[in-house]
User: Fold this.
Amino acid sequence: MKWLIRILFLIVVAFGLVIGALLLMPGDKLATILAEQVKAQTGRELKLSGDVKLSFWPVLGMETGRVTFGNAPWAGSEPMLSAQRLAVGVDASALLSGDIRIKRVLADHPTLRLERSDGRGNWELHQPGNSSDTGASAQAVESRPVTLEQLELQNARLIYIENGAVSMEFADVDLSARWPDVTAPMEMQASMPVPGGNVKVNLNIPDLPAFSSGVVTPLELSLTAPGGGIQFSGRVNLAGEMDGKTTVTAKNTHKMLAAFGRGGVTVPEGLGRVANVSGQMTYTRDGRISLRKMVAVLDNNRLEGEADIQTSDPPKITARLKAGDLDLSNVSGDDVSSSGSEADGWSKARIDASSLALANGTIRLQANSISVPGMRFGKSDLTLNLDRSRAVLKMHPASLFSGHLNGQVVANNRNGLSVGGNLTADNIDINEALVTLGDIKRLSGTGSGHLEFLGVGQNEDQIMRSLSGKGNIEVGKGVISGVDLDRLMGRGGGSGGTTVFNSLTASFTMKDGDLNNDDLLMKLDNFRADGTGRIGLGARDIDYLFTPVALRANAGEGISVPVRIVGPWSGPSIKPDLTKVIEAAAEGKVKALEDDAKQKVLEKVGKELDTTVTDTGQIEDALKDKLEDEAKKSLLKLLGGD
Assistant:
């Protein structure tokens, strides 16, 4: 028994001497021993600087100064992990039973580089040696339960590299995580500063071992940022690919975009200054996002459909959307009060077209109605193509002004703003169209036509004064207010009442904001009206001459009384053009005098020649006949005849 007690005493003394030797050993010597052991177990270089402090019970721990841990041989030259200070503690009693229960990992200003290439991850550690030994060692390590009670990274820089290219990088990150049991979920919280505040992330992975091995596993994620947040519930793998229910909520989209590096972007009202977008999202490692069963509430607008997004700069979007009544009346971002009145002319407020640069792609939209600045579309089927600040809106068709439009409208902001289009209209309410587009209220009817136009400028006034193009119009039965042709042709006045016409046709050209027409033809029951003149689209004025002709007057010859329309659109002067009437009357008087003189000459010649002459062409023939007759009579007298 005494020998047993002595042996136990010697073992305790020896163990105490070893512990004491380790505790009294200089820090640099401890660092060398640890580095050698890590090298032997992992094949990676571990460099420690400063004093190394150890603790043995109840926590087997280590604290160091600056530390670096080498990368995998196939990965980059930068270390996998570096930190200004590192503290690691393991539960000593659990370690004796074969469990690895990490009590704490604390790192100050760490840089963590996670790399993945050809199915390998640089976080996978293997003991050097032959393949069989490596496999046995890895299997032994994997068989041991590993848990984590506390992980803290302060002011960290996190980098994820996929096949040699950096796919994610974050700086100044504070991160904490815990995984208290093998069967428990891993919980992680992180925060990082961004413009306007901080982004905070809460992450929950129910099956960490499966996730670490590359298996697709469930994941819950909640992200809050200045102006909004993101919620995700679904599945994810180690490469960052995701599939699940996603909700993006933006209480202030401007602040939220700025937080994610898109500051300075103005979201027009109606397109999501306040937004809630939800759907089934799939994200792939090449940066593609697929949204199905999507519901987007953008300000007061609601859209449903599906979309595919390429996360480039700017993003590329392909979408098919359906909406009810869509209000985009303030999409230009202008204050309605600054749009100008009739007296002021077109607005000179700068048009903000920066939203054309928000994305590229193709968006198909079907809506019950669409309100845009200055007009309202009915049920419409539209396709919007966006390409580097150039938007092409195709209508197939769009309902507008109680009719239909086919064609396209283009807005280009690549080098200053320009707008243009090529449109065909069918069964358009002319009054509704003219009032909306030019505040012209005197003409009504239903018509069709074609229009090609181009305008350049940074505000309405510049665009309207630069308009060029061409077109034509055909109107069925309609009304002109303010002109009564019956009264005008009957009693000389035409300043009031209305004129009902049966048809109207015209073609026109546009240049420098002026519309010019010289072939207007209006048909009525008793009249025909021709028109020619200029309509100032930029100056908002008119100088036009109507020439109505009374078809049944003057024995069917017709009487015309021209009407000149001159002045601003808001109140033009409409009155008969007496100059034209006098000129026409003078021409008629001269012709009557000429005809009377001609008739008297013909009668005089006929009397002298003793024949009937009705045309000047007969005078020569009658004169020849008279001379021949006189010659015959003289010859007979000469020959002694009667």
